[in-house]
Fold each of these.
Amino acid sequence: MADALFTEMLQSVERAVTENAPRAEGLLAPVRDMLLYSLESGGKRVRPLLALLFCDAAGGDWQNALPFACAVEYVHTYSLIHDDLPCMDNDDFRRGRPSSHKQFGEANALLAGDALLTHAFYLIAAGEGNVSPAQRVRAAKELSRLAGAEGMVGGQYIDLAYENKEAGGEVLFAMDRLKTACLIEAACVMGCIAAGADEEKINAARDFAVNLGLAFQIKDDLLEYNDEANSDVKNGKSTYVSVFGFEKAEALTAQFTEKAVAALGAFGENGEALRTFAGKLLNRTK
Ligand code: GRG
């Protein structure tokens, strides 16, 4: 049941991510190619799926949340392109292919990220779907705050500040609350906004997202632990595995997932697909 819903949502996200890309033509056609190179390279689409699942759980028509879902995926894609740049994590590969700057040059990769970030807000303002102007404004407010200096960008700042400097558990949690969980929070909350959910459900979605975000990051560290291309090791970064050890990190990811699932009580039976999805993220292999 839930699997059929995930498949349908995923197909819609894949279509919408491509259809909503800027229509750059003529002299600008290479710009569109550059954006699609990163948008269509096999990301898991975790954030857009969360937006759609929360819209559904809050009683909305999830198709209405597609522009918001794409907006979050565009911000996510921009963050990965910029994160891979030589001045940041300096990664030559992303999802098994040359990273954007390796394929198109550094200046173009910078522009590709800028274009995706900007276009995300275009989609929220102008996108299709039966969503009111007030809902669009609220969504833009959430995404700009959670992706910005007090959110994901702030988390990236802490990440860079701790390169070649040991970070303890407290710093890791504070950093990933911002770097990873904030964008997940934006996705969950924007899905609720698209459904016209009340504040109780929006707060429950935040609670879910903060815990799921930390579980997701710890799981990411666990998966990268045995990966030779792992840039955390190369860049001298502390991870949950280096700070807590593999087994404790595994226990932590399960505990945070449990807390996330507990927050879904506010959605009653409608939270079932989200519960299944959280379990899939906990047991993912990539
Ligand atoms: C450059 C402002 C700026 C921020 C960068 C996203 C990010 C912040 C850094 C990338 C490195 C990293 C490990 C970030 C934590 C979030 C995370 C686990 C990203 C990977 O997300 P997935 O697994 O990626 O959803 P896919 O490839 O599936 O889309």
Amino acid sequence: MIYGKPKEECGVFGIISPKPIAAVPLSASALMALQHRGEESAGIATFVDGVLKCKKGMGLVSDVFTSDYLEFAASSKIAVGHVRYSTTGSCNIRNAQPIETVHSKISLALAHNGNLTNSARIRHELVQSGMVLHTTNDTEILNILIVRNMIETNDLERAVVKAMNFVEGAFSLVIATKDKLIAVRDRNGFKPLCMGKLGDATVFASESCALDALGATFVRDVRPGEVVSCDLKGNTTAYMLDNAAKSGLCVFEFVYFARPDSVIDGISVYDARVEMGRCLYRQKPTEADFVCGVPDSGLQAAQGYSMESGIPMAPAFVKNKYVGRSFILPDQVARENAVNIKLNPIKSSVAGKRIILIDDSIVRSTTSTRIIKMLRRAGAKEVHMRISSPPFKYECYFGTDIDDRDKLVANHYDVDGICKKIGADSLEYLSLENLCSISPSTRFCTGCFTGDYPAQVEPTLKNSFDDELRNKG
Ligand code: AMP
């Protein structure tokens, strides 16, 4: 975890082709385009002559999939891949995905983005019935439910629909069997999942930027509550889960998670961020010499602010592109120093200037405090902090791992208090109304800002979050 920030979620990819293709190398390329969704582990599963093969490892896609392995797995017809940040289940190789299950009835590999909200109860029931589970993540139970329903129905699609009707929460999934690829999106469509075509092959990805990376054409988004099954002849069949709600797309995808070159459910992430910046200016017009975004998460909102205000954009920092993941550094001191290695203010640009500084969110306030201090040291006259989302206050049960609600600065201070704490001359958060105006026809999940969630959360899950907080004191 980087400086105790909430972790991102995961990225999934799937491909099926009537003819043998480089399914594994293509998956590796797609996962690289989804790397921002998870840096802890990467994995790809494929079927070679009907036999399930899977390679997973800790680290980046390029660490796990070396050229040797890609050559070895050069030709197959089906593959699914995953990049992970741990949400449910700790960070270790056992919890890396795809999760494979080999059973006489069906062999499958499944990759999951999201968090199930009734998995603890299902897990408990499975364990009580004598089932041995191999991971601590919530995804393994999906494999088990599919196999159980397969034994009962002998029909893969029915088994998947039945299993998915049993689980609750957030799940964008790709499932590979020896002759099918199935994509599933939960009833609320919390997490993105889109479908594309690459020649005769059908592909699914968490974000459209992965389709672009392969040169695939975007076909459509998988609908909330939809199960799309593709076979080796190129046939595609769609099914619906019970009670599809059609609302609940995670608004934080647009604030921070997704890549700006992705389009999710018809909304361009780039356009949405530019609009957030425009709204920030309209909300509180402020005079300044230039606008700058915190690299990279604040850049598009800064652009929008500049367009709306007419205040020029200028860089205040240089970002060292060779600095990798801060969490691999051995201790806290090294991690603290990493900020200085990663970002350095450009003194001649900053000295004597009134600056509008834009970032996407304040979680614990570590980043903004440090960055504002850097700008002051470099001689900035005024620093006006603008945040392209509302105060971050609540846990997310659907896939973002907020490790401790008590550490969220907005639960301890009001806006003026946070402004003082981070050392800014002024602070403005984007209002919820303006955030949601990025797509008036979409009903987003805004739970991390409001505490209101579009789907029920089992009291046991809520309690376990609360217990965790109490235990931490
Ligand atoms: P903090 O320093 O704790 O206030 O965290 C705020 C910074 O973390 C901002 O610069 C965000 O871009 C970044 N951030 C927000 N959400 C996440 C997340 N889920 N994972 C990693 N970084 C994040």
